[in-house]
Amino acid sequence: VMTALPNAQRAYEVITNAVPMRTDGPRGSVNFTRSLRFEDVTFSYPGRTALLEGLEMEIEKGKVTAIVGASGAGKTTVINLILGLFRPTSGRITVDGVDLAEFVHEAWLDKIGFVSQDSFTFHASVADNIILGRGNGSRKSVVEAASIANASGFIGHLPDGFDTLVGDRGMRLSGGQQQRLAIARAMLNAPEVLILDEATSSLDTISEKQVQEAIDAASLDRTVIVIAHRLSTIRRADKIIVLEEGKILEQGNHLELLSLNGHYSRFVDHNN
């Protein structure tokens, strides 16, 4: 017990200390009409080696941009920077030329729908799981979001439809059904930007097909940023960015990168 006490004290301090709040900028609205840019962005935790170094990249409005790389390459850090959860150690991230730090954080987040590998399904009704974190969504908006997410079919077969309790951690639903609820949740406020972080990586082939159809529908007329290892998701992207150890090695579409016979080509060979 005495040996473990210092670690217990430190854990207690971390849990109970106030979380530092992000400082909002003066701009209460965000105009995103052209592109999101990383301009010489470096990020590191204090006293540690840089996770990202000198990133220069552009995510164009209305296009699908895929980010690929091995574990530890910096993909999740890029997403956290886009979400505004971190700020660059140096360089800047801009929206139509305006530094992301200039905006009220919530104003930027309101433009983003986020779907991760974990669907975060809670012991509540189907409708409440879709509304979660998005205020009091109307039943009409919930139904529309479910339709986009290719979820209306299985919801209609549930005992109480949208009012069906899904059980603790969604135990009454399959993995693919839970993920389609997560996509519906992301679609509820009609976001301009859709971020997909390994959204199909833990699914079987049939579930992946159903979720991919939902992703395709949700991606129409939106700016999509996708992290994925499955080629079915990546190869259709307008731009693919290959990361390794926090640096960009290659950029281009699927065919362009294959022609280079470099890192992306080896990635494709490994995943075929």
Any overview of this molecule?
By secondary structure, the chain is α/β, with parallel strands linked by helices. 35% of the residues lie in helices and 21% in strands. The chain has 11 helices and 10 strands. A 6-stranded mixed β-sheet has the order 6-7-8-3-9-10, sandwiched between helices. Strands 2-1-4-5 form a 4-stranded antiparallel β-sheet, with helices on one face. Helix 5 crosses helix 7, helix 7 (175-187) runs parallel beside helix 8 (205-219) and helix 10 (254-260) packs across helix 11. The chain is globular. The termini are far apart. The model has no long low-confidence stretch (mean pLDDT 87).
Question: Mind summarizing the main beta sheet?
Answer: 6 strands, mixed
In N-to-C order, the SSE pattern is HEEEHEEHEHHHHEHEHEEHH
Task: Kindly name the structural category.
Answer: alpha/beta
Low-pLDDT residue intervals, each spanning 5 or more residues = none
Estimate the global geometry from the Cα principal axes: globular
- CA(first)-CA(last) distance: 51 Å
Strand percentage = 15-25%
Nearest-angstrom radius of gyration?
A: 20 Å
Number of E-state strands: 10
Helix content range? 25-40%
Estimate the mean pLDDT confidence.
87
Q: How do the strands line up in the largest sheet?
A: 6-7-8-3-9-10
Number of helices: 11
